[in-house]
Amino acid sequence: MPRPSTTPEKRRIAHVWPFRPTVRYGGQVAAALRTETVGGIVMLLATVAALVWANTPWADAYKSLQSHELSPHWLGLEHMDVQHWASGGLLAVFFFVAGLELREELTHGELRDPRDAALPVIAAAAGVVMPALIFVAVSAGEPGALRGWAVPTATDIAFALAVLAVTFSSCPAPLRAFLLTLAVVDDLIAITIIALFYTETLHWAWLGAGVVLIATYGLLQRRRIRSPWLYLPIAVLAWYCVQRSGIHATVAGVALGMLTGVRERPDGRPTNAERADHVLRPLSAGFCVPVFAFLSAGVALSGSALGAVLGDRVALGVISGLVIGKFVGVLGGAWTAVRAGLATLGEDLRWREIAGVAMLAGVGFTVSLLIGGLAYTDPSRFERVTTAVLIASIIASAAAAVVFRRRARPRPAE
Fold it and tell me: Is-contact 366 289, C-beta < 8 A?
């Protein structure tokens, strides 16, 4: 009996399967991770996984994973365990993407026009100052507490946008832009705080080498050189030099991101910033930030552990700063800016929606945990601070959800 013939089309499909579908699905996953909402959900799942593991009989294995040393002597990097690699290495990618966003906002976005940028910028600045003041007031007199004054000053953009998307699906574009711009400015202030206040020992030779490499990167960007294989080793070496200098290496990430070219090309091809964002945003949202969250958020949630948090004025200062300070600072800063004539509210924004965003600004996860780890080297205190950040983020999310569900007015379709 003759065998059925195989057409060229069938042979082609047989040849590429299963690789072609894998590439297609991989592209779909990457596209999903380029949205802040999906990134926030992935980070939330990683956080839940860490909390579950840390509260099982296998909690010691989780602690061992966190503290597992990965410090080859030839690198010259002292005490780099898995958790430090996540905060210093993986978060550098996150801050590189944040630098890209900030450069885009300054060139083409809300920060291009000082008049339009005034409202979220002033709100962000007030949303940093007020939580710090409340933290200092609540934790006053506690030994070593002041080192953590910056913990409640940060807003987690991915987490906040995920909550916004779930609770306010009809969110108007100007409100989302306000939150995005506020969070980008917040990240810039946070990275400046890390560089200025959480650098203990400065090695000038390594810092100088890092500055030269970052400047070289910027010069090549200005010349519109496009090869990523030229930029990658420069960026890695810049990260290494800044890490060796004593400054937290995430500073290198945001500096490189802000220097990446955003000028449009005459031939219509993507800019260097667009290409970098296209590749690195899924990596940041799908791997770097979730891994950092997984390695940082695993804290005990027993009754005694929660009691220790509520009895620690540092932890209470973090909760108060994020929940109360962020709300008062962001809303009060925006209201003062409008009343003083420094900014305009805009026709498509409502104060009740600004109030919801102000509550949502209290979701301070990624950067708050990073600063907490830099401020408090004592593991027990850092664990209480981590728990406080989680509690504050849950309270802020719930409060914002109530505002958006009950008070946000549905908008007519454009």
Answer: yes
Nearest 5°: phi and psi at 249? -70, -15
What is the per-residue pLDDT across 149-205, written as a single tens digit (0 to 9) for each? 999 998 887 778 778 777 776 777 778 778 878 887 887 888 889 888 988 788 899
401 and 163 in contact (C-beta within 8 Å)?
yes
- Name the E strands within 114-251: none
Helix (H, G, I), strand (E, B) or coil at 286: helix
Closest CA to 134 of 151, 158, 118, 120: 151
CA distance linking residue 270 with residue 265, whole number of Å:
7
For the chain, which residues make up each domain, given as ranges? 41-61+87-198+248-407
Q: What is the DSSP letter of 302?
A: S
For 25-75, what is each residue's pLDDT tens digit? 455 555 655 566 677 788 889 989 999 999 999 989 998 998 888 877 777
Rounded CA separation 186/120 (Å): 10
CATH no. of 41-61+87-198+248-407: 1.20.1530.10
pTM of the model: 0.78
